[in-house]
Hints:
- The protein has helices at 5-23, 36-57, 63-92, 95-109, 113-120, 137-159, 162-186, 188-193, 195-210, 217-237, 250-262, 272-279, 281-298, 304-323, 334-339, 342-359, 364-367, 370-376, 384-388, 416-428, 457-469, 482-487, 505-522, 539-547, 561-567, 569-577, 590-593, 617-624, and strands spanning 400-403, 406-413, 433-439, 475-479, 525-529, 556-560, 584-587, 598-603, 606-607.
- It is an alpha/beta fold and 629 residues long.
Amino acid sequence: MKFRADINGLRALAVIAVVLYHFNPPWIRIPGGFAGVDVFFVISGFLMTSIIFRGIDNNKFSIIQFYIARANRIIPPLMVVCSVLLILGWFYLTPVDYRILGKHIAGSSGFISNIFYFKESGYFDATSHEKWLLHTWSLSVEWQFYIIYPILLVILKKILNFNSIKRVLLIVTGCGFLFNVYVSYQNPTYSYFLLPARGWEMLLGGLAYLYPIQLNEKNQKYCQWLGVMLIIAAYSTMSEKDMWPGYLSLMPVEGAFLIIVANYQGGFFNNAVFQRLGTWSYSIYLWHWPIVVVGYYLSIPFFEFIGIPVSIVLGYLSYTYIENRKVALKSPSLLRQLTMSKPLWLIIIVGGAAAIVFKNNGFAIDRFPVSVNNIVKDIKSTPNRVNCHIYDYQDPTKACEYYGHDINWAVLGDSHAISISYALAQRLKATDQGVKHFSFAGCIPSYGKGNDFSSCSRWYNEAADYILQNKQIQNVVLIHRYSAGLYGENGGIYPRLSHKKMPEYAGILTSFDALVLKLAKTKKNVYVIKPKPEMGRSISKLFYENYWVSNTVNDMKSVSLAYYQQRNKDILRHFQQAHYPSNVHFIDPIKEFCDGRNCYAIQDSQPLYYDAHHATQQGADKIVSQIVM
């Protein structure tokens, strides 16, 4: 295909938005810059479709050669980034972070990192800045598309003519968009990270090749400008608060589509800056996010003035000396080309080393003193998180039960209920009493509310009704991140505080009161756990900040007591003014986590958290110790 300056410029428009969004400089806000990834997807779909169909038309297309060609361009720069992180991580990262880095490098090497991040949490969550390779989710989506797409087209070519294939792809693209809209409502994290909800964007790029539009020069210019305006409008008006990708993603995707079909080689993109940035865009994309994470860890003020130029320079060097190097395919044997492929061996070596780092828990024993290792090994979630915690609706009757035969306790709440239920069950085991564990990720109190109130409303109501109707259960523990529901997350703005009430504010308080009062009528005891201190940054970052400047980590402060009180003032006041019956008991984590001035992340060499706000087993044990059994 003849070089197209418009597509190269479109790459620049995409990478500029992504880089500015992630560095988030105060002098230029691009709230929807993440949509640059959607633009990249359209470009990839167009280019891959053109390569595949030209090969098929000439009877020269080979799936293996297609894979090898993609690997030779994509893998070497990625593996260099991963190798640098793996080496630097040995010297500078704590065992917790190094272990997670090993996992993420292994996932990126195998192009399944999008699945890892989908299972961990959302793209916009508070801990995203601690994931060195979070941006590789999009590379994984593209590579998964590269694997499936040519196989699908080769099969279709055997049974259909060219026009029929075009119609099939048009229908599949439309259905893919509708599926994306549906799943964005049902499961936003799934729609963001996984190929089934993103594939339509690449397929639409393919349609730009399959359905070319012939325009005169004047209309080409208008079509290109319309596409540019749609993309810029998306960058300017969208934000992480919007449902994404969903139907809103049609704006940047359609904008990219119009620019490609316009095929106008002058105008907006015809300048040296856009052409250079477009040429280096893949390598800039690879390097910029680790640089962003460095700035986050070091808390460097005005870091964008350092980070953005460094990202561009590293992108240029990566393109010039790694990405742009041509790899000769000398052997006539496709099998030999595949087995002797340098990118394949890079994946095996780097991915294998990363897997070893993960399996050996970040090599804490080799890199840190015994006293520190004893702390680090306990910075982990409780065992029941994987099997007993849910992220989508599940029949509450299937909730986990452990460990005694007399299941007369229940714990209900969001993810904070995980460690509490486990710690409680451990304490009850000696008396053969058991616990029924109900926890749903990010679930706000939703009792008595309709299914549109929260993503967990149906489950919450059914779980509450199950507990109410189960006469064997006589003791109920309720725990939530109340202030996260009332005011939103604090991780992205700490140490500032949000004063904007969430739309569900009043409903959360009324529904919680309704549930407490109803439980109190039929149960022996109801225990309400007051909010636990939220640190605003993870224990790994705190550990890093303290350990590497030789501060003690045996008693590591997290937030001030004043911050805790301000963050939770509404729910604490509500509890203080509530007129609950005498069998409703408050459990106060502050008694265990804080002194008169500060709250702690690590206390007496025991980590109380394993991230920014979830308790370790030691932290949960301290809270549960207040429950009189």
